Every structure is written in C-alpha cells, then in structure tokens.
C-alpha cells in the first residue's frame, strides 16, 4: 500500500477535511461575534461604565485590580458564540430539544 493511498484513507476515515472547514468557519464566526460585541453591543453599554471606557474599566480593591470591562466583553462573546452553536446544533440535528445522546 502506498503512503499516498494510506494518507488519503486517513483523511477520509477521520474526516479531516470537514474538520478543517469547520475550524475555518468557526474562526470567521469568532471574528464576526467579536466585532458585534466590540463595535455594536459594548458602545451601548459604555454610557453606564464609570469613566466611559469599557475596555479598561477596572475595580480596585486595595492592592487588587479587577479588569471587569475586558471580562464583560469576553463573557458576552462566549454567550453569543454558545447560543449560535446551540442554534446550529438544533437546526442541523432537526430536533425539538437538543439533548445529550
């Protein structure tokens, strides 16, 4: 068996091409969601942040500084991505309720 044939079988058996496509689409979706959060959602929240700079908003408790603005942005990114993955799973699996199998 030639090495090229073995490699082709490996790609087919482990569905490497599909995984690569999913990874690339996931990276693009992440960039899109980050832009949504940073450019649309967070500017709406900015007026409620003391000092008006949500990215650098911090809370100082003695010697400890909590960077809650950055964390809030990451949390919103995660929630949106998790919701999108949920919707895709629901749509692809065509189920009434997404359940563990």
UniProtKB/TrEMBL annotation:
<feature type="transmembrane region" description="Helical">
    <location>
        <begin position="71"/>
        <end position="93"/>
    </location>
</feature>
<protein>
    <submittedName>
        <fullName>Large conductance mechanosensitive channel protein MscL</fullName>
    </submittedName>
</protein>
<keyword id="KW-0813">Transport</keyword>
<keyword id="KW-0407">Ion channel</keyword>
<dbReference type="GO" id="GO:0016020">
    <property type="term" value="C:membrane"/>
</dbReference>
<keyword id="KW-0812">Transmembrane</keyword>
<keyword id="KW-1003">Cell membrane</keyword>
<dbReference type="GO" id="GO:0008381">
    <property type="term" value="F:mechanosensitive monoatomic ion channel activity"/>
</dbReference>
<dbReference type="InterPro" id="IPR001185">
    <property type="entry name" value="MS_channel"/>
</dbReference>
<keyword id="KW-0472">Membrane</keyword>
<dbReference type="InterPro" id="IPR036019">
    <property type="entry name" value="MscL_channel"/>
</dbReference>
<dbReference type="InterPro" id="IPR037673">
    <property type="entry name" value="MSC/AndL"/>
</dbReference>
<keyword id="KW-1133">Transmembrane helix</keyword>
<keyword id="KW-0406">Ion transport</keyword>
<feature type="transmembrane region" description="Helical">
    <location>
        <begin position="16"/>
        <end position="37"/>
    </location>
</feature>
<dbReference type="Pfam" id="PF01741">
    <property type="entry name" value="MscL"/>
</dbReference>
């Amino acid at each position: 068996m030639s090495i090229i044939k073995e490699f082709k079988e490996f790609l087919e058996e482990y569905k490497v091409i599909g995984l690569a496509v999913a990874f690339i689409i996931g990276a693009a979706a992440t960039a899109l969601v980050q832009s949504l959060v940073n450019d649309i959602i967070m500017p709406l929240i900015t007026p409620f942040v003391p000092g008006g700079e949500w990215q650098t908003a911090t809370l100082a408790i003695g010697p400890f500084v909590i960077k809650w603005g950055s964390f809030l942005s990451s949390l919103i990114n995660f929630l949106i991505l998790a919701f999108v993955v949920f919707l895709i799973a629901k749509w692809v699996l065509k189920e009434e309720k997404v359940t563990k199998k």
